[in-house]
Specification:
Elements lengths: L2 H16 L14 E2 L4 H7 L3 E2 L2 E6 L6 H15 L4 E6 L6 H6 L9 E4 L4 H12 L4 E7 L7 H5 L9 H20 L2 E6 L1 E3 L8 E3 L4 H5 L2 E7 L5 E4 L10 E15 L7 E7 L10 E2 L1 H12 L3 E2 L4 E3 L5 E3 L1 H11 L2 H15 L30
Parallel strand pairs: 3-7, 3-10, 4-5, 4-6, 6-7
Antiparallel strand pairs: 1-2, 8-9, 10-12, 11-12, 12-13, 13-14, 15-16, 16-17
């Protein structure tokens, strides 16, 4: 028997025992993506948050980690109108008005929000949310806020060391399998904690080591050195300068990525309050589109003051002229995003026809599945 036929028989034997846990060749394709809400972060991730995968966002307090997941949920609702999104709010601090302002549909048919008491609740809730395929994206906010049932129910002087890590380790392994089966994604929000095991001090992300082994991407969020954007206010109640911070530049570094080159960094401006000077609440998508477009060639620099847009039109006036053109034609933002993503996915081969011509008797020659006669 030729080696190819023997391998097909081995695959068939494995499928009889382990079912769909044996991957068929026709399912070995690049996963679909949900946009992170940021053009530059999508580029850094290689397309966005991949479905059938789990992801981790880590960073200090106040860096916009929860907001980033809300923006991803907004895109998920647009991409999958027949599926919903969910938030497991361990910190019990989710702001519904802020989420609605960012565009999240809070209708009961599109959004589920739950409060867990302990880590065991989180594990059970994720399983219930994902098992029927009705939810496409789940946000767990946050790993740093989890504690085990043993610690939750015991007195302060009783020890429950290691219990929480054990629960989370089992949970992330189970969640990874559910995401693959149901074409869904889970984003774990995490924070930094003091590294008590290091005599020199320092910080480390909360949670067990299993979290980094089972998540596809890890994004570290921080601030850049750019000064914050401020506007003058008339209702100041202190002697400090009568200014209000409305925007800051966020740096998102992809520290781990199993689907695209890791180490990419995305910088973007986020505004938490609408103003006449800086525009609406959210990420400055026009600024992102220009930066990403110039970096990837989606917007071609013809000279020091003129650029060629993705649709072939020429814009003069330098970067301010490009900003004005995008403000007048918002559809250019999506054109820039698509052309930029093509730059990092050009080496991905098109799907080709897969056959199992050498499959043994009882195996479907198109899909590789075991037929009823051979089962």
């Amino acid at each position: 028997m030729p080696p190819k036929s023997r391998l097909a028989k081995l695959r068939a034997d494995l499928t009889k025992v382990y079912g769909d846990r044996v991957t068929r060749r026709d399912t070995m394709t690049r996963p679909d993506f949900i946009s992170s809400g940021s053009l530059t972060l999508d580029y850094a991730l290689g397309g966005g948050f991949a479905l059938k995968r789990t992801h981790e966002i880590v960073g200090p307090e106040g860096m916009g980690k929860t907001t980033q997941t809300i923006l991803a949920m907004v895109d998920a609702q647009k991409k999958f109108p027949d599926r919903g999104v969910a938030v497991i709010d361990m910190e019990q601090s989710f702001d519904f008005e802020w989420a609605a302002l960012l565009g999240l549909d809070l209708d009961e048919d599109r959004f589920i929000h739950v409060y867990p008491d302990h880590s065991e609740d989180v594990s059970d809730q994720i399983s219930m949310l994902l098992r029927d395929g009705l939810i496409c994206l789940v946000t767990v906010d946050s790993v740093g806020g989890m504690e085990s049932k043993a610690a939750f129910e015991k007195r302060a002087e009783d020890s429950a060391m290691g219990k929480n890590s054990q629960v989370i380790s089992r949970m992330v392994k189970r969640v990874a399998g559910l995401c693959r089966e149901q074409n869904a994604a889970v984003i774990f929000v995490n924070q930094y904690r003091a590294d008590i095991g290091n005599p020199r001090g320092g910080q480390k992300s909360a949670g067990p080591s299993a979290l980094k082994y089972n998540t596809t991407t890890k994004i570290k969020m921080s601030r850049t050195g750019e000064p914050t954007k401020k506007v003058s206010i008339s209702d100041a109640v202190s002697k400090a300068p009568a200014e209000l911070e409305v925007g800051r530049q966020i740096r998102a570094k992809v520290e781990r990525n199993k689907l695209a080159p890791q180490g990419r960094v995305a910088d973007y401006w986020f505004f938490n309050k609408a103003s006449q000077k800086y525009g609406p609440v959210g990420i400055d998508r026009a600024d992102e589109a220009i930066t990403l477009g110039i970096a990837t060639g989606a917007i071609k620099r013809l000279s020091t003051v003129s650029y060629e847009m993705p649709d072939g039109t020429t814009v003069k006036g330098g970067r301010p002229g490009v900003e004005a053109a995008i403000a007048e034609r918002p559809e250019l933002v999506e054109q820039v995003r698509l052309k930029a993503l093509e730059a990092i996915s050009a080496d991905i081969k098109d799907d080709h026809e897969v056959t199992y011509d050498d499959a043994p008797d009882g195996v479907n020659t198109t899909t590789g599945e075991i037929t009823e006669a051979a089962a």
